[in-house]
Amino acid sequence: MGPSSQVSELLIAWCNGDEAALERLVPLVERELRRLAHGYMRREHPGHTLQTTALVNEAFIRLIDQKSPWQNKAHFFGIAAQIMRRILLNYARDQKRDKRGGGAFQVSLSEADAITAERSVELIALDDALTRLALIDERKSKVVELRYFGGLTVEETAEVLKVSAITVTRDWNMAKAWLAREIGDGA
Q1: Is the pTM of this model over 0.70?
Q2: 146, 157 in Cβ contact below 8 A?
């Protein structure tokens, strides 16, 4: 049995109530969750206060709490990518709120603070545009989420969405053009 089918079988067993399956599952999925988190964090500024480990831990806690009926490994990591996107988006919105006086009193307006605020605004603008894209074409929105935020390859994205790699490539190119126009118009 290959690692992919082993993960799929453990996910199904865990969802069916086998708690021991979760113990065997954790080490198998941890490396991939770290890769996803690293893909997200690579797009953040260097001084970002949320670390990769914290993102992985928070995502895994939410995945455990969700305990969805996982179809397979690809489905699990697709949901993980969505959860990580939401965690980073909530973090960015919290940072933006804090910059407007919602948090502690800020004395310094360092360059790092400006970069953080700028990245938060960019992430929120992208999320808003993705939400609008999902209303027009949900699959293209999912492709962007999985490829950009999740760091999945074309083939992995195709597996999660159950479409061909050519369809993912076409959706990816069209979505990027649409998002560039949308975000450019809003700027």
Answers
A1: no
A2: yes
Q: What CA–CA distance (Å, rounded) separates 8 from 54?
A: 25
More confident site: 23 or 74:
23
Alpha-carbon distance values, 61 to 33, 64, 67, 75, 94 (Å): 12, 5, 10, 17, 20
Whether 110 contacts 145, CB under 8 Å = no
- Residues 109-166: pLDDT tens digits? 343 344 445 556 777 788 888 889 999 999 999 899 888 877 778 998 898 888 999 9
Cα separation values, 173 from 33, 79, 84, 135, Å: 26, 22, 23, 18
Residue 20 to residue 33: CA distance in whole angstroms: 20
Question: What six digits make up the tokens of 86?
Answer: 């939401």
Which amino acid is present at 62?
R
Q: Indicate the burial class of 51 (C-beta count within 10 angstroms; 0-12, 13-18, 19 or more).
A: exposed
Largest CA distance in the chain: 58
For the chain, give the mean pLDDT.
76
Tokens of 156: 């992995």
